[in-house]
Amino acid sequence: MVDWTYAPAPESAALANLAPTYRPFVDGAFVDGGGEALKTVNPATEEVLAEVGTASTEDVDRAVAAARRAQTEVWGPMPGAERAKHLFRIARIVAERARELAVLETLDNGKPIKESRDVDVPTASAHLFHHAGWADKLEHAGLGADPRPLGVVGAVIPWNFPLLMAVWKIAPALACGNTVVLKPAETTPLTALVLAEIAAEAGLPAGVLNVLPGAGDVGAALVRHPGLDKVAFTGSTEVGKEIQRTLAGTGRRLTLELGGKAANIVYDDAPLDQAVEGVVDGIFFNQGHVCCAGSRLLVQESIADEFEELLHRRIATLRVGDPLDKNTDVGAINSRPQLERIVDLAAAGDAEGAQRWTSPCPLPERGLFFPPTVFSGVEQSMRIAREEIFGPVLSVLTFRTPAEAVAKANNTPYGLSAGIWTDKGSKAMWTAQQLRAGVVWANTFNRFDPTAPFGGYRESGFGREGGRVGLEAYLAG
Ligand code: NDP
Q: In terms of DSSP H, where are the helices of 190-233?
């Protein structure tokens, strides 16, 4: 194997235009929040990036009232073609400020710059363009002759794709004539606040979009607010269940995009080199902080040894380190609690008898990092086969027949995504039909497109985001 050495190619942190302080965005202006300010840190260095004002319960009331007023007086009655202009403008400014947003996302989240630059920001902009296109065509969406907005949407999002998750909720909600109060994750509030600045720059009327930074208590105050018509949540299954309990019987609409434990099935007739790339991308993209990550590799027993050897060889070439370096493949773990959770679950894998393989890659001396890790000999009963690790840890199980592959893939309380690798189209189609997952990729993985609906079954939640079907979650028929 060629031992490549790479000269560092760091992107400049100055491109992020970091401000020393950020504030909540309510009714068209940045305001002093009534909550205690938080410090957001760069997980690659654990240095403080900025101080962020947070929302109090009164700020939640104010934001919901502003969103209501904007919805009934301005945004709801506005013709779709006019709403579209605002969304197109926001989409264009996101694209124009892509480099700044990518660097800011990488600083706040720890993800490699090549991912924020090539995936997060362009996909966010694409979602805005896509939904801008829908705003004046809703009566042709197949959802009734005169679809109406729901009203005010409360959106709560996680830290793994901070800008993209904000846009996944804001773009369809606004296109359909709703207004939004958004609560970003405590550890990654910055890009959502820059998005608010962009919305203001694009002339979005006051109150149409409000952003309330803060911890889980702000999210909880928002989702139980009686002034909302709908809640859209992405995050853990545990918090999703709590929100569902809060909303039960209120008549408010709810969509939940929760965890996953996706199977990536590799049949013995698969093109192995491509499958290796897909499996690596499936679990190490975004440090494995991905709800649809292919965290369970199911490989056919006859090729298991050969495949694992190829996999180890490929994984050993992944470069772990400075997220701002354009050569970096695997960046920092987003927070210390998340790193501890990954360490604990990996230790459970050892204790339950799986064999751990760790990439020999060097790790930076400071910051929050975890090396790419593969557990082989994993049994279905083990915690590392059942629980969402949400980190760069792959669990390898084997199967002998397609029926066994399907049975094992479906043996999970989740149902978000799955992958299939085979040379035979008929086998891919048969397997996809048997899998109980909202998204099934064949001979590829982690493909996201604004036209394709995304969402899960069972403990992965309900409702779809993206595409024509995704509009349904924001319209009353
Ligand atoms: P959470 O579900 O706690 O966080 C998601 C969002 O909900 C955050 O904005 C959070 O705020 C907010 N929140 C927390 N508690 C409440 C509440 N009671 N009511 C309303 N909103 C609330 O995920 P974590 O960040 O704690 O991650 C824990 C685990 O969840 C991960 O290890 C992973 O397994 C899973 N996860 C799955 C994700 C997915 O995409 N499916 C995304 C993120 C996590 P705050 O950030 O301040 O806590």
A: 190-201, 216-223
Q: Give residue 263 CA to ligand 1 midpoint distance, Å.
A: 22
The pLDDT score that the predictor gives to residue 1 is: 53
List, in order, residues 6 or more apart from 457 with CB less than 8 Å away. Answer: 415, 416, 436, 437, 438
The CB of 236 under 6 Å from ligand 1? The reply is: yes
The response to whether residue 341 sits with its C-beta less than 6 Å from ligand 1 reads: yes
- pTM exceeds cut of 0.70: yes
Confidence of residue 6 (pLDDT cuts 50, 70, 90): confident
Using DSSP, state whether 230 is helix, strand or coil: strand
Q: Is the CB of 80 under 6 A from ligand 1?
A: no
Out of 257, 308, 387, 465, the active site residue is 257
Q: pLDDT tens digits for 345-403? A: 999 999 999 999 999 999 999 999 999 999 999 999 999 999 999 999 999 999 999 99
Query: In this predicted model, what pLDDT tens digit does every residue of 406-451 receive, in sequence order?
Result: 999 999 999 999 999 999 999 999 999 999 999 999 999 999 999 9
Catalytic residue check, 352 = no
Q: How many residues does this entry show for the chain?
A: 477
Average pLDDT, the chain: 97
Q: Is 259 in the pocket of ligand 1 (CB under 6 A)?
A: yes
User: Residue 122, Cβ neighbours under 10 Å: how many?
Assistant: 16
How many Å apart are CA 351 and CA 384, to the nearest integer? 11
Catalytic residue, from 291, 292, 459, 465: name it: 291
257 counts as catalytic: yes
Q: Which two tokens stand for residue 220?
A: 């909880």
Asked if pLDDT for residue 477 goes beyond 90, the answer is no
* Contact 216 CB / ligand 1 (< 6 Å): yes
